[in-house]
Design goal:
312 residues; alpha+beta; 2 domains; nine-stranded antiparallel β-sheet; four-stranded antiparallel β-sheet; globular
């Protein structure tokens, strides 16, 4: 019997910073870029830490959709290992092992199905931000058009979260943001509408006199908004807190950190409202098999189309 691994499939949507023609989508651009960059070397991008992100495989599905497999490895990096344990083993020493000849240990990978600007993905030990980074750099490297990399993969909120907020009302909102990330956000997408948390962190940076400084500083900002029943204007405060909660859910961006507490004490966070599903996929070492993952991703995509989450 084939071993299966439970995986989470997530839904993202490419949000363009610059205005794109309706005929130009992420799916179109990826297929064109892969045609132009047609070797594994051409399709490899090095990160600052020495890791390499590589487009291991791409399989077009029409002219605006494709299946992708992205891998990450660190050339020459060893892997930790432990000896086999026997009945006489008293202690265990961790050692390292070299990768096999002509091989590298894989740090992680991501399987994607991209159709126009809609993206469903399954990751193993690799972040969604790394996938975002690779796709942007890959399209920039292909030089198809000057603004091909001007997008971000935005999380899409489950509409049930909005219904919950509207039914139960908002009791309080906890906001948190990393100041350095807010500055990087400004540099990377100056003309893109800014989310609530990015605006909050940017304001604090401005007070510090370093609004657009991108130097990592390990600083975070946290704010709690809640109603005070002892003060006048409670109905106005209720309405504003409600509108703010709905806006945060609707406009959430990658990396946002928030918690919305409803009047029924239900907590809503970025992790709890993301459009996602769980499924079993045939395992391959620490990861999953490419073909089985792609089948699951396409089935998830089709489900999102059928329930109206993705408009055709």
């Amino acid at each position: 019997m084939t071993d299966k691994r439970e995986k989470t499939l997530n839904y993202r949507r490419a949000s363009w910073i610059t205005k794109q023609p309706s005929s130009t989508t992420l799916g179109h651009l990826l297929i064109q870029a892969a045609t132009k960059l047609n070797t594994a070397t051409d399709r490899s991008i090095q990160r600052d830490g020495g890791q390499w992100l590589r487009l291991a495989h791409i399989k077009p599905d029409g002219n605006a959709a494709a299946y992708l497999h992205i891998t990450e490895d660190t050339p020459g990096e060893q892997a930790s290992a432990v000896p086999k344990v026997t009945k006489t083993t008293l202690s265990i020493d961790v050692t390292t092992v070299e990768p096999p000849d002509n091989r590298e240990f894989m740090d992680g990978d991501a399987l994607l199905y991209v159709c126009r600007d809609e993206v469903v993905l399954c990751t193993t030990s690799i972040s969604a931000q790394a996938v975002d980074f690779f796709l942007q750099k890959f399209l920039s490297l292909a030089k198809i058009r000057h603004d091909a990399d001007q997008f971000i993969l935005q999380p899409v909120s489950d509409q049930d979260a909005l219904k919950t907020l509207q039914m139960q009302g908002v009791k309080e909102i906890h906001l948190g943001a990393v100041l350095y990330q807010a500055s990087m956000s400004y540099i990377q997408r100056q003309h893109h509408p800014q989310g609530m948390l990015g605006a909050l962190a940017k304001s604090v940076k401005a007070v510090l006199g370093s609004e657009h400084d991108v130097t990592p500083d390990a600083l975070t900002v946290s704010v709690v908004l809640k109603k005070d029943g002892r003060m006048k204007g409670k109905s106005v405060g209720d309405a504003r807190l409600q509108a703010l909660g709905e806006k945060i859910v609707t406009d959430q961006q990658v990396g946002d950190d928030f918690a919305i507490i409803t009047n029924d004490d239900q907590k809503i966070t970025p992790q709890s409202i993301a459009v996602k599903t769980h499924t079993l996929i045939e395992s391959l070492g620490k990861s999953v098999t490419r073909e089985d993952a792609w089948l699951s991703l396409k089935a998830f995509f089709d489900k999102l189309v059928s329930n109206g989450t993705i408009e055709q």
